């Protein structure tokens, strides 16, 4: 945006129930709730083009890191190789067994997940065997972030 005090619409893309958007390079990764995840080519901002749709789950959140997308539904997180945005490959599921996935953030190789009344889950995504731990919160965990050596949880 050349002037943040006076933004203008350059182009639009219509999708179903957007809950999150992340951009990497010339692609936008959209969390579209029940419609799954969509990857949209935004290299020409006035004419975005749908490149790929992943609709196996209700997608709520997306975290991008290099060529990986961590895609959260209400009850699981899947790691997807998006190095070729027109034909991504699902690498694995982290198999979270919670009722609600509210938010997530990646710090290094650790994926921190705010999981509603289940509290916080932390996954080490650096190896093929996903190690994790959980921590109960005093309230419903809605949001999460990492600041230095601290984990901040909105509960």
What's the SSE blueprint?
Blueprint: E1 20-24, E2 27-31, E3 37-41, E4 49-54, E5 59-65, E6 68-73, E7 77-81, E8 89-93, E9 103-107, E10 110-114, E11 120-124, E12 131-135, E13 143-147, E14 150-154
Quick overview of this protein structure:
The protein is mostly beta strands and 155 residues long.
Sheet with the most strands, sense and barrel status: 4 strands, antiparallel
- Radius of gyration, taken over Cα atoms and rounded to an integer in Å: 16 Å
Strand content: over 45%
Order of helices and strands: EEEEEEEEEEEEEE
How would you portray this structure in words?
With 155 residues, the protein is an all-beta fold. Helices cover 0% and strands 48% of the residues. It contains no helices and 14 strands. The chain has strands at residues 20-24, 27-31, 37-41, 49-54, 59-65, 68-73, 77-81, 89-93, 103-107, 110-114, 120-124, 131-135, 143-147, 150-154. Strands 1-2-3-4 form a four-stranded antiparallel beta sheet, with no helix packed on it. β6 and β7 form a beta hairpin. It is globular. The protein starts with 19 loop residues before the first strand and ends with a strand. 28% of the residues are buried.
Which descriptors would you attach to this protein?
0% helix; 155 residues; globular; four-stranded antiparallel β-sheet; mainly beta; 14 strands
